[in-house]
What we know:
By secondary structure, the protein is an alpha+beta fold. Helices cover about 15% and strands about 35% of the residues. A five-stranded mixed sheet has the order 1-8-5-2-3, with no helix packed on it. Strands 4-10-9-6-7 form a five-stranded mixed sheet, covered by helices on one side. A hairpin with a 3-residue loop joins strand 2 and strand 3.
Amino acid sequence: MKTFPCMAALVLAASAAAGAFPAWAHGTDAHAAPGASRPAPSPVQKDWGLAGDGQHARRTITLTMTDDMRFSPDHFQVKRGETVRLRVVNQGQVMHEAVLGTRDSLDAHAQMMLKYPGMEHAEPYMAHVAPGQTEELVWNFNRAGSFDFACLIAGHYQAGMQGRFTVTE
């Protein structure tokens, strides 16, 4: 009987359109509580690298975030294969975050955050930092290219809280 696969597809499409499924593409984990330990390194390869092991980090880069919706520095450079500890410092009075990604992944994530500003998630390429606090993420930059990082809290990305990083051969 061929109607079952068609009916199942229609039911799934209608459920998705009605918002019956969680936003899996964005992640289903909660934002890490300030001061909480980072998620265990993920073996999942991203276009911009993969979670690193802190024991292999030979360099630390400090990214400072402020309420003028800027990162300092707003660009950094690493070598392909390098594992770096990113020390993310929030010098502002509101919550900020640093999320690594591609322009497309950050654009999509930012749109989801505008639609669902209370959405909870945590990934090894994200650091959510309470005012006056510091968090760290460790990343293995194993793919060469130009990539991006941003604060995706609703309105921050749109206000220009973005930066770039270059991974050289």
